[in-house]
Amino acid sequence: MLQSLREDARVALRALGRAPGFTSVTVLTLAVAIGAAAAIFSVLYAVVVAPLPYPDPDRIVRVSAETLPEAGGDGDAPFSDRGYWHFVNANRAFEVFGGYEGGTAQWPLTGDGPPQQLEVAAMTRSTFEVLGRTPARGRLPTEEESAPDGPRVVLLSDALWRTRYGADPGVVGRTLELNGNSVEVIGVMPAGYDFPAPETDAWIPSQLDPASENFGGHHIEGIARLRPGVTLAEAAADAEGLIGRFSEVGYGPQWFTAIFSGNAVVRPLKEEIVGEARRPLWIVFGTVAFLLLIACSNVANLLLVRAEARTRERAIRVALGSGRARLIQYVLTESLLLSLAGGVLGVLLAHLGIRALIAAAPASVPRLGEIGIDGRALAFSLGVTLLAGLLCGLLAAFRAGTRRTFDVLRDGGRGSTIGRDRHRARAALVTTQVALALILVVGSGLMVRSFQQLAAVDPGFHPEGLLTFRISLPPSKYETPESTAQFYDALIERLEAIPGASSAAGISNLPLTGGGPILTALVEEFEPAEGEFPPVFLIRRVTPGYFETMGIPVTEGREFITDDHDARLGSLVMSASVKQTYWSQASALGKRITTAGAPARSVGVVGDVHDGALSTPAEKFIYKPMLDSVGGGVRAMTMIVRTEGQPTALAPEVRAVVEALDSDLPITQVRSMEEVVADSLSRTSFTMTLLLLSALVALFLGSVGIYGVLSYIAAQRTAEMGVRLALGADAAVVRRLILRQGMTLAALGVLLGLVGALALGRVIESMLFDVQAADPLTLVGASAVFLAVALAASLLPAERAARTLPSVALRAD
C-alpha cells in the first residue's frame, strides 16, 4: 500500500506540474482559507481559550457586590475599606482574599534620567499570593511595608527594568524618585506579568488600614483564590451571606434599596479579562470556517472539472488493470498534495496575518502579547489541511470510482453533449458557495451599518482640531490644591501662546475614556425621603474655557471663570440631562447641589456628553472648578488644545512648554481627539473589518465558482451550441441560455443564503447598534450585490458561447 501511495504521489506531482494554472489557483485558494483559519485560531486560542499564566488559574475569581440598575455603573461595585476587611476576615470559601485599586495611577519617575510617566498599580500583598506569582528578582512587600504609613517600596515590570535600567541586577535595592517621593526597588516581576493591566510599569503595596472607618468610598477591586473543592456557586452563596451582613460594618438599609441588590458577582478571572472580546472572536472564527467551506467547495468544483476532463485517461487505466479503489486513492492523493501545499503556504500567510491583526487590533483586546504561531496552531493547521484535502477530493474520488468511468470507452466521444445529471454536483457546490458567501456578506453589511450608525452619534463635542495629552503633578512638589491650580493656570496661558493654538483647557477625565469618580449628591430642592439613597452623578474637574475649547454648547448661564477657583466661589456647571431631570420647566441657575461635602450653586448648563461609549446614553455630569468651596486641586489632568491645523503637529511645542514650566514632568497619551473617538469605536471597527475582509474573499470565490462552472458547461456544450446556431438560433438566444443557467444558480444560492443570514443576524444581534438583525436594506443590498457579481461572472462564458462558430463546433465532434 505504501508503495502504491508513493507511486500515486509521484504521478500526481508530475501531473500537477503539467497543469501550472490549475495547481497555482487551487493551492492559492486553499492557502488563503487555511491561512485565515490558522491566524484567527491563534488569536482565539491565545485570547479566549488558553489558561491564564498563573498556578491553578481556574480557582482565581473576581468578587464584587452586584448593584441595582438605578445605581448606575457596570452592575457591580468594588469594595470599601470596611467591606474589604469584612470579606478578608469572615469568608469561608476563599483560600486567599486580595484587593487592588481599579486601573492604574500615572506617576512621574524622575531623578535618574529623562522624566518618564509610569502606570503604577496598587495591590495588597495577598493579591500577589492569589495570583501565585513571585518576583523574578527580589521579593514581595513585607507586612510592615503593606501597613498604613509603612516604608515606600516598588516592584518594577520586566519591560521597565530592561528598557530604562538595561536589565541591571543592581537596580534591586536602589532608591528611585517616584511621584516626588523616595521609594526603594524591592524586586522585578517576571516577563509577561501584567496584572491588572497590560500597560502596568510598576506595583506598590496597597497600604490599607484594617481599622479604617470608610464604608462609603468604594475603590478596592476584590480578587480571590477559591479553596480546594469549592465551586463558583458555593463561593457566590458565601459572598452573598457576607453582603447581607454589611450592616455590621456600617452600611445602612438605604444601601440595599438603592445600591446593592443583595447578590454577589463571583466570576473566573479569565472571564473578567476576556470580557466582551469573546463573542466577536468566536463570530469571526465562525466566518473563517464558512470561508474555508467556500474554498473547499471551489476546489472541489475544480477537481470535478479536472476529473471530467480526464475520464478517458482513467478509463484507459481501468483497461490496463487498475481497480476502482486505486482510482479513488489516486484522486484523493492528488487532492491531499494540493491541500498540503496550500497548508504550508497558508501557515506563512497566517504568520503575516497575525502580525497585521496584532497591529490593527484595538488595545481593548486582551492578551495580545500571547498571540503567535505555536505548536497548537501548527497542529490545527495540519488538521484543517488534511480535512480540506479530503473534503475537496471526496466528490471527485467518488465520481472516479463510478460505473461511468468503466463505460466511457464504449459510451462517450469527447464532443458529445453532457446531460444535466452530469452537472448537478457542480451546480450544488456553486449554490452552496453562493449561500455561504451571502451569509458573510450580510453579516459584514450589518456590522458596517452598525458602525455607520455608531459613528454618526453626536459625542456632544467637536473633536476636529483638538490635541490632548495627560499630565500628573507629584504631591511632594505641588503640596496644596492652590499650587496645583496655579500650575494649570500657567500651563494653559503658555499653551494658548503657542502659534497655531487658539485655546486650551483641562479636565480630570477625558470624555470617551471612562473612569473618573461617580459620587452621590444632595439636590437641595429634592432631598431624598427617609431610607432613600441620594442620586449619583459623574463628577469632573475642569478649568476655565474647557467647554469653549471642546465645543460643548452652553445652553444656560455661563461656563467657569478664573474667579470660580481662585476665590473658591463654590460654583458648578451641570449637564443638560441633570437639568431635564430636576428643572425641566424652570431655570437651573442658582440651584444648590452638594457633593463630597462641598456645597455648590449652579452657574451654567451645558450640553450632554458621552463618557463611556457612544453606544450608551449620555451620562449625567456635574462639573466643578479646580478648587471648590472646601477642596479640589486634582493633580492628574488631561489637557486639550484647540489648533488651527493638524493637532499632532503642535506636540513638540507642547512638550517644550511643559518642560519650561517643570523639567521633571513627563507628558503621556499625546493624541488628537479624533483618535480618542476612533479608539472608542475600535472594537466595532476591528470586528467589522475582519468580517468585511472575509465577505470580500467569499464574494470573490463565489463569483469564481460561478464563472468556472459556466465556462466548463459552455465548453462541454460546444457541439450543442454549434447545432443550435446552425439551425438558425441567433447569438442572443445562446447568450441568454448560459446567463439564465448562471443566474439560476446564483438566485438559488441567494435564497438559501438569506435564510442563513437571518440566523446569523440573531447571533450577532448583541453586537449591533441601532440596526435590526433582519435589516431590509442590508438584506436587499447584499442580495443585489451578489446577483450583480454573479451576472458579471456569467457574462464572459455566455459571450464565448454566443460567438461559437457552427463549423468549428461541428468539426470538433
Number of strands: 23
Give the fraction of residues assigned to helices: 40-55%
Overall mean pLDDT stands at 85
What is the gyration radius calculated from CA atoms?
A: 34 Å
What number of domains?
Answer: 4
Major sheet, described briefly?
Answer: 6 strands, mixed, barrel
Number of helices: 25
List the helices and strands and how they pair.
Layout: H1 2-17, H2 20-49, E1 60-67, E2 76-77, H3 81-90, E3 94-101, E4 105-110, E5 116-123, H4 125-131, E6 137-138, E7 153-156, H5 158-165, E8 175-178, E9 181-188, E10 202-205, E11 220-226, H6 232-244, H7 255-258, E12 260-268, H8 269-274, H9 278-309, H10 311-319, H11 324-360, H12 375-400, H13 403-411, H14 424-455, E13 466-472, H15 481-496, E14 501-507, E15 518-523, E16 536-541, H16 546-550, E17 554-557, H17 562-566, E18 571-575, H18 576-582, E19 592-595, E20 598-606, E21 621-624, E22 636-643, H19 651-661, E23 668-672, H20 673-680, H21 682-716, H22 718-726, H23 731-763, H24 776-802, H25 806-812
Parallel strand pairs: 5-10, 7-9, 16-21, 18-20
Antiparallel strand pairs: 1-2, 1-11, 1-12, 3-11, 4-5, 4-8, 6-9, 7-10, 8-9, 13-22, 13-23, 14-22, 15-16, 15-19, 17-20, 18-21, 19-20
Helix pairs in contact: 1-11, 2-9, 2-11, 2-12, 9-12, 9-14, 9-21, 10-13, 11-12, 14-21, 14-23, 14-24, 15-19, 21-23, 21-24, 22-25, 23-24
